[in-house]
Amino acid sequence: MAESLRDRSLTGFLWVLVDKVGSSLANFIVTIILARLLAPADFGLVAMVMVFFEISSSFIQSGIGFALVREKTITELDKSTVFIFNLVTALAFYGLLYLTAPWIAGFFGQPVLTAIVRIMGINLIVSALSIIQHAILTQQIDFRVQTKVRMGAVLASGICAVVMAFNGWGVWSLVARIGVMELITTVLFWVINPWRLTLRFSTSSFRRLFGFGSVILAEALIDKVFRHLIQILIGKFYSAATLGFFTQANNFCNMASNSFLQAIQKVTYPVLARLQDDKVKLKDGYRQLIGVSSFIIIPVMALMGVLAEPLIVSLAGEKWLPSVPLLRLLCLGGAIYHLNAINLDVLLVLGRVDLSLKLEVIKKAILAVALIIGIQFGIYGMVVGQVAATYIALFINTYYSDLLLRYALAEQMKDVAPSILFSVGTGAVVFILLQYTNTAALYQLLWAPVVGTGIYLTLHHWAKTREMALIKTFIIPRTIGFFTPKL
């Protein structure tokens, strides 16, 4: 990568990381407070309907919006076309959800879901109103404004939800949290980054953008349906409380792994898309991505798996203890999820969305089979099936990375081997120390991560790994410069 591009991408990444870490921390604190104020069944009720909103939002936020980000120059006609398409789509899906809400409630056997679906559906329309600002800022690798907007929305919605939960609003606290976040996000985007709407629709612009975006949309739909399939099955065949336990475990896992990964993906897609014609630099960029992301995510998943019980008990309370074994299983999948996501990004950067869609269909078919087999053994069987499908997907995702960039799975495993070995070793040491120390769960959370982090970094330092060198010579100096006030 050119030095200027590296600097720009790191600056963008740091802003996104501030956004993701800050908003994740705020979300985490709010979730912990709500977990103590609300019942597991309340979380389960919202989880039951999220798949329908994920599917609907795919039509609004994915596809054509994603194609807009990939454009080198975004015209006013492009903006207007995308805005009109997304708004009309949002209105159509809200109408569909409004009409089918009673059927959704009947499917899960929860009458209250009718009102929940109809109220949460309004968020689709609100979200569609700010899609252009989001796309433009992402295309320009400007994440400072997005960070400010998201942080404001997270804090305001979190405070609203906690106040409502404290006053006995139950599940509606969670519904309000989502709605207030979308509303404030849209309002702030329009206030901070206004855009003059012309209401012009170009069929040629739409065909050009939708030609690329339609495949992305299809892939997103398949991914979101199957990603939430386990929640649908749990919600249908088990209690709302059981789904609540799974949802809480999934939230903990995603908070630790996906925040960093999403920060990387959000920045690197527009950056690496500019290197799509230089395969050598593109491969080196992806090697750095995989190395640095594994350096952080794999040990975090290892420590979270070891500390699952004190983490759940200390923060959420003993009523959430059934989430502990679920969290440990999910951490096994979370440790390699980033490798799957980054390998898929290779195809998108190179414009091979046809191959990406093909792989998505194959992987989801494998996941469906795994869940069907797993359901015979209860909820734990389904989670094991989901994790197993994640590992099988890694072999599939890396096939085209090898074909297009000559970056095979064997080479990727060689690049991340130190992080895997050092994470397993660190986790084993921390686990043994926990067995021989008789301290309260909260104290375990205070000393164990510090000890584990020290061991892990020391091992990387002694081994003089590429990731440690990159962090010491490039990332740390520029990060210090980023946070140091310029006089």
Structural write-up:
With 487 residues, the protein is an all-alpha fold. The chain has 2 domains: 1-225, no CATH class; 276-487, no CATH class. 85% of the residues lie in helices and 0% in strands. The chain has 20 helices and no strands. Helix 1 packs antiparallel against helix 12 (240-272), helix 3 (64-70) packs across helix 10 (203-227) and helix 14 packs across helix 19 (441-463). The longest helix has 35 residues, at 3-37.
What is the element layout, followed by pairings?
Blueprint: H1 3-37, H2 40-61, H3 64-70, H4 76-108, H5 113-120, H6 122-128, H7 131-139, H8 144-166, H9 171-192, H10 203-227, H11 229-237, H12 240-272, H13 279-306, H14 308-315, H15 323-349, H16 353-374, H17 378-405, H18 409-435, H19 441-463, H20 466-483
Helix pairs in contact: 1-8, 1-12, 1-20, 2-4, 2-5, 2-10, 2-11, 2-12, 3-7, 3-10, 4-5, 4-6, 4-10, 6-9, 8-9, 10-16, 12-13, 12-15, 13-15, 13-18, 14-19, 15-17, 16-17, 18-19
Regions with little confidence, pLDDT below 50 for 5+ residues: 1-5
Shape: globular
The residue-averaged pLDDT reads: 82
Number of strands: 0
Main β-sheet: number of strands, strand sense, barrel status? none
Structural class: mainly alpha
The total number of structural domains is: 2
Distance between the termini: 29 Å
Q: C-alpha Rg, in Å?
A: 22 Å
